[in-house]
Design a protein that fits this description.
This protein is α/β, with parallel strands linked by helices. The chain folds into 3 domains: about 210 residues, Rossmann fold, CATH 3.40.50; about 130 residues, Rossmann fold (3-Layer(aba) Sandwich), CATH 3.40.50; about 180 residues, Aminopeptidase. It has an 8-stranded mixed sheet, with helices on both faces. Strand 4, helix 5 and strand 5 form a beta-alpha-beta unit. Helix 1 crosses helix 2, helix 4 runs parallel beside helix 5 and helix 6 packs across helix 9. The two termini are about 50 Å apart. The relative contact order is 0.08.
Length: about 575
């Protein structure tokens, strides 16, 4: 399947609509693909899924919470670890890593992803990040040997050196997309600030196509030979530029053949006269009355290939087109290289029709020795000693809880509406937020989170109310960037402190299963949740979960069980789940 050319208009809305329509046809039958990114990567899904469907069938795509790559890879209970992934796509932006540590931070993240993909038996696709869009030093940054561009290049090449040529690992370069589109056309600063989506739809379209292209190459979806049809061409002007195309094919190692009917002999002579080196660039040429389809089939049979393994190049109405047959069947696909003969070789390369994946362990394409270990092999991956606990401990996470003031109430309402992964799922209206902020028997707290990588800003919302001897938690929301960093435990300690101040005997959580908030429910069921409610002066408080269902029907389940209904009970640090 050819890659879409950057400057060829594509109806992105139609592609997204086609994906949505396909989603309604039933469960996917293709591979399970996981996407982990340091930014919101959901816009990638329709383009990647649509591009993959032909070769593999419609994939089942799982998108992890953004900016949680390491946690998802290290936690054996993460959604990605339990998803049974066939393919893992990892995309880490440099801008979301600590400045000054890109050359070590990026390889560390991808190294953890490599180890996770190996454990899970998944194919790993690492997206090499683009260069930063803006350098604080401006043009002067070009002069610094250790500036942002140099640091970004070093980080990218460290990952390439560590992972290139490894079995079941592939690299896709986002910088190629950003460079081709241009910075102004590729980046979306306003959307990133609002929703952590750094790129425009065109970037996700082309990035999805590149990822799918690499995976389709694994399925043999590439052409191994080229056939240039001279039928209908009569003079030197018609063959102008074809010699350059044949030179590119020869340099790329693609066997090339010239075909045509008896009337194409004149054009053949014009081509040889214009470029005498052409015969030496070709594997063979033939002219007969069989027609191009039959000629391609006979050519394929003679080479031991299928007809779909040969790309047919034709010049018609001053334009050069390349026609290929997809590996998954369906109609032929044609790439229009346009009328500019000088651009044909570069556009043919950009279309990826003849791309080939490297063979792991095969000699390098150049004689330049690789840097590596003592045996001269690939550089070693980071050791497997990094654990989730040590990673979180190294972040130095701090959370500051205080009552929201003024405009911060709007932020609280936004978080209650927008948060999907870590939330109780029980709606809380703006009026209820205002009431909680007013005080009395209710408490509203906004938590600001920071770690050694930077300030995450307002990331936690807690709303509590006193009901008899209970401290009822009305809202427990943590934003995606703060999830999995121990913030949950800090929030539980904050809740427990207020519960004791209220004179409550236990903490009650009401929740509703939204299909996406299992991270919150799983945490509240864990021993860590109940254990973190203790204090130096007292034992941990009892924790009760109450599940709110549409029909209000309920059964009870003790935390840590498989869900067997039984009489509600509590333990010293127990969590009782009422559903």
């Amino acid at each position: 399947m050819p890659l879409p050319l950057i400057d060829v208009p594509v109806d992105l809305r139609a592609l997204r609509a086609a994906h949505q329509a396909a989603e309604r046809t039933g469960p996917p039958g293709g591979p399970r693909v996981g996407i982990m990114a340091s930014y919101t990567a959901d816009p990638l899904v329709p383009y990647l899924a649509t591009a993959l469907t032909g070769a593999y069938g419609r994939p089942d795509v799982h998108v992890a919470p953004y900016n949680r790559i390491v946690q998802e890879c290290l936690d054996p209970e993460s959604g990605s670890a339990r998803a049974g992934l066939d393919v893992l796509v990892v995309a880490q932006r440099l801008e979301e890593l600590e400045d000054g540590a890109w050359a070590t931070g990026l390889p560390a993240v991808t190294g953890v992803a490599y180890e996770a993909a190996t454990r899970w038996g998944a194919t790993l696709v690492v997206v090499l990040p683009g260069l930063p869009a803006a350098d604080p030093l401006g043009v002067a940054g070009d002069c610094w040997s250790d500036g942002r561009t140099a640091a970004a290049s070093a980080a990218r090449e460290a990952v390439r050196a560590a992972l290139a040529d490894r079995p079941n690992v592939h690299l896709v370069d986002l910088e190629a997309v950003l460079r081709s589109l241009g910075t102004a056309r590729a980046h979306h600063p306003a959307l990133y600030q609002y929703a952590k989506v750094p790129y425009r739809e065109e970037v996700f379209h082309h990035l999805g196509a590149r990822i799918a292209h690499v995976l389709r190459l694994r399925a043999g979806d590439t052409c191994h030979a080229a056939a240039l049809d001279l039928g209908g061409l009569v003079d030197a002007e018609d063959v102008d530029g074809l010699g350059g195309v044949l030179r590119w094919l020869s340099a790329a190692g693609v066997p090339s053949h010239v075909l045509g009917g008896p009337d194409a002999v004149a054009a053949w002579r014009e081509l040889v006269a214009a470029d005498p080196a052409v015969p030496a660039l070709l594997a063979d040429w033939r002219f007969d009355e069989l027609g191009p389809d039959r000629q391609v089939r006979d050519l394929a049979a003679g080479l031991g290939l299928a007809a779909r393994d040969i790309a047919l190049l034709r010049r018609r109405e001053d334009r050069l087109t390349v026609t290929v047959r997809p590996v998954g069947g369906g109609p032929d696909e044609t790439v229009d290289l346009g009328p500019e003969a000088a651009a044909w070789p570069s556009l043919l390369a950009a279309a990826g029709v003849f791309d080939r994946l490297p063979v792991p362990g095969a000699p390098a394409r150049t004689a330049r020795p690789r840097e590596g270990g003592p045996d001269g092999g690939a550089p070693e991956q980071p050791s497997g000693t990094l654990s989730l606990a040590s990673f979180i401990a190294g972040l130095g996470v701090e959370t500051d809880f205080r009552p929201p003031r003024g405009a911060e109430l709007a932020k609280v309402n936004d978080m209650l509406v927008a948060s999907k992964e870590f939330t109780l799922g029980v709606p809380m209206t703006p009026a209820e937020v205002d009431a909680a902020a007013a005080g009395g028997d209710r408490v509203l707290r906004l938590g600001r989170v920071r770690d050694r990588l930077g300030d995450l800003g307002p990331s936690v919302v807690l709303a509590l109310a006193k009901d008899g001897q209970d401290c009822v938690v009305e809202a427990f929301v943590i934003s995606c960037p703060a999830m999995g960093k121990g913030v949950e435990v800090q929030a539980m300690r904050e809740i427990a402190a207020h519960a004791r101040a209220m004179g409550a005997d236990r903490i009650v959580f009401g929740y509703r299963d939204t299909g996406r908030n299992h991270a919150a429910v799983d945490f509240l069921r864990s021993p860590a949740a109940g254990g973190s409610t203790g204090s130096p002066d007292g034992a941990p408080l009892d924790v009760l979960l109450h599940a709110d269902s549409a029909d209000n029907a309920g059964s009870t389940e003790t935390a840590g069980t498989a869900g067997t209904p039984e009489t509600p009970e509590t333990s010293e640090i127990g969590a009782v789940i009422t559903s």
